[in-house]
Amino acid sequence: MNTGEKIAAARKAKGWSQEDLGWKVGVSTQAVSKWENNLSEPDKDHLVMLANLLGLSLEELMAGIPSPGWKLGSPYFDPERMYTYVKAKAQAAGLTQTLAALPLMREKHAGVNREGSDVPYYVHPLTLACHALAMNITDDDVLAAALLHDVIEDTGTTPEELPVSGRVREAVCLVSHNTYGGEEDKEKNKPLYYGNIAKNPLAALVKCMDRCNNLSTMAEGFKKPKMVKYVKQTEQYVLPLLDVVKEVPAWNNAAWLMRYQMITMLEAFKRLL
What we know:
Layout: H1 3-14, H2 18-25, H3 29-36, H4 44-54, H5 58-61, H6 79-93, H7 96-108, H8 123-134, H9 140-148, H10 151-155, H11 166-174, H12 190-197, H13 201-221, H14 224-238, H15 241-245, H16 252-272
């Protein structure tokens, strides 16, 4: 079934006439007729509107439309350069926890790749540290927590093994799902999980940076149902954490930038999914 046939079938299933659909989309009845008879193609904006109105994804609606022929590249940067960059920044500022966290993080995540890719997993915590530095956050606790945020949850490392302060350990424990139970409890414990993070600005900052990175790469590793779920969870649980981040005056700009980044990605995904 081509695009025009899909528009016609979905329109009829809604009980709408071509005139009804044209009015909702803001085009003439003749334009709808041309689409349905494959005499013309809806432009990008109209495709998005049609998908939303007809309850179809863009992928479903555009089946049969030639691919733009893009060459897909990796959304990641060179991990060794990122590692060297963070290390150099930490050495220059005397950030002892960050310098201890860097090799431990790489060691603990060794041999594991990001979901759906061949990119080393440790690129993810490195990206969070680079994100913080790009937002002019050079706090040793923030960088160390960003680097170690998945170590307890994913590698079986205990909090006591982390070469960091109690403040950093607490934040890492709060963002680690296994602090709250096993994998089978993950979904039901979400209100508790995010509720506890909301009581700790450092944990909230790390969680928001984590979500920014995961949103930016989920098209590579997530299947559509997981992407839809992730968008909903981000709106429900993660965006409110930015108000907690703003409680620290030095992080106000970071909160604004992360809100902008997350909302623009969420709105783009909602139109495409």
